[in-house]
Amino acid sequence: MRIKYEILQLKWLVILAIFLIWCWRQRASFVYQAAVYEEDRTYNVWDIVFDQVMNPFAMLWLLLPIWLVLSLRTIIELGETTVLIRVRNDRAWLGLVVKKLSVPLVILLMLWGLAIGSTTAGMSFEGGWSEFTTSEHWLNFFTHSFAAEGWAQPTAIAAQFLLLALFLQMLTVWLATAWIYTEKSWAVSLLAAGLMIGCLIAYHKQSHFPEWQWASIINWMLLLNARHTFGTFWPAFVGSPLLMLGCVGLIDLRRNRIIFAGLFRIKRRLLR
Amino acid sequence: MSVIELNKISKSFRGVRLFEEASAVFEKGKIHGLVGLNGSGKSVLFRMICGFLLPDRGSIEIDPAYRRGAGGFPDSFGIMIDRPGYLAGQTGYENLRRLAEVRGQIGKEEIRRSMKAVGLDPDLRQKMRHYSLGMKQKIALAQSFMEGQQVLVLDEPFNALDERSVGQVRELLMAFRTEGRTILLTSHHRSDIEMLCDYVYRIENRKLERQPELVSTLT
């Protein structure tokens, strides 16, 4: 019932329209750039797909704000005493939020995939990587490493979608944890806005300190950047779940009053 | 046999000291009334009983039969605190079904029965944004007992209800008491307290004072 209700929402049509517009513009841009800079080497359908699937600009300017709004709405909707009393504890409530958002997350990523897929209409799917990908050039940054390491295209796309899903759910967990601590809609909204702005700054403003490159937001949501920075794909998959576990730990601390007892003692001393 | 026991709880909320070593015992199968001036802390007390707020000092003991492990929210508690939120674009029935899905314990029939019990038509296609204040109040009330909750914590359950509905809800609460359910309620109407409550606590001087005689407490 929930899935049917969720799918029938008008918002998804609007989101799909936005995705379609962006994907077709990106495709046109790719074809133009390839024609200008890579005249003698031919690209195939996978190059067009990966140029969109691995695009950090789209992730940060399209998927991220949509997801933050969806998360915020769900958290505020479920942050009711009538819902809380029906779950076991704060941690179970957090699980409920993540569970409720899993359907919109799947729909969002499916629409994203659908919009990308639409840009390949009429093209045949070749089995291998193109001549364009297997050679090194700045235009094929998003595909060359996969080709060099022998990844199959569907595996690389699935891995990227999984990483993105983990990253987005991690943001939800942060927002939900903030709600548990503050119980204020405005505080969670402020955090969501802060996360959005923070992610954009972290992406557009390059760090002057090479030792801080690992902290760049892109390393945690874009598979190839993770590999580029860490030398392997795995840290990106481990980072988000670890941070989510950290939030669960914070929630348990609240439940066990560890933080609150400490704050209460500090407050009493200050008031004396 | 007590369902809820407050042991010397102290609580400050938004800079105001509401309770100072307040104690009370709420027995099973009785209706307990809580009276006090506006801002005296009735809703905060209810939130503490449900585990949404923690007392600064002291403890709140809930009968283990109504607990789901240590530190969590109590089990089988139906609550109506402040004005519960709802999805304005959905009908009353859809809102209740959404809440029922959280636990997945009841189906359509139980939800429909609860709505009828408070005088609402479950087939009404009107969205909740068009509901009157009284109808919203009835939805809030229906969700508090639709899953057979054994302890009802109701903050101003008679607010915005018309005379007929007040009578209907009073009968419903008395029927729940006969079934052995425990009810904690607040009301600013003397008649509600007089007619329904077995025990009355008054919040005075940051304490909970059990009133020996109902009439004398209600000024």
TrEMBL record, chain A:
Q: Where is the signal peptide?
A: none
Q: What InterPro entries does the annotation carry?
A: WW_dom (IPR001202)
List where the protein spans the membrane. 57-76, 97-116, 157-179, 186-204, 232-251
Q: Which UniProt keywords apply?
A: Membrane, Transmembrane, Transmembrane helix
Domain WW, chain residue ranges per copy: 129-154
Q: Does the keyword Signal apply?
A: no
The highest taxon in the source lineage is Bacteria
Could you confirm whether the keyword Protein transport appears in this record? no
> Which residues does UniProt call coiled coil?
none
Name of the featured protein: WW domain-containing protein
Q: Per the UniProt entry, what species is this protein from, by scientific name?
A: Saccharibacillus endophyticus
TrEMBL record, chain B:
Q: Which InterPro entries match?
A: AAA+_ATPase, ABC_transporter-like_ATP-bd, ABC_transporter-like_CS, P-loop_NTPase
Q: Which UniProt keywords apply?
A: ATP-binding, Nucleotide-binding
Q: Which GO terms describe its molecular function?
A: ATP binding
Sorted alphabetically, which Pfam families does this protein's record hold?
ABC_tran
Q: Where is the ABC transporter domain?
A: 4-218
Identify the SMART domains for this entry: AAA (SM00382)
> Entry's SUPFAM superfamilies?
P-loop containing nucleoside triphosphate hydrolases (SSF52540)
Judging by the UniProt lineage, the source's domain of life is Bacteria
Spell out the Gene3D superfamilies in the cross-references. Answer: P-loop containing nucleotide triphosphate hydrolases (3.40.50.300)
Q: Does the keyword Nucleotide-binding apply?
A: yes
- Protein name stated in the entry: Multidrug ABC transporter ATP-binding protein
Specify the species: Saccharibacillus endophyticus
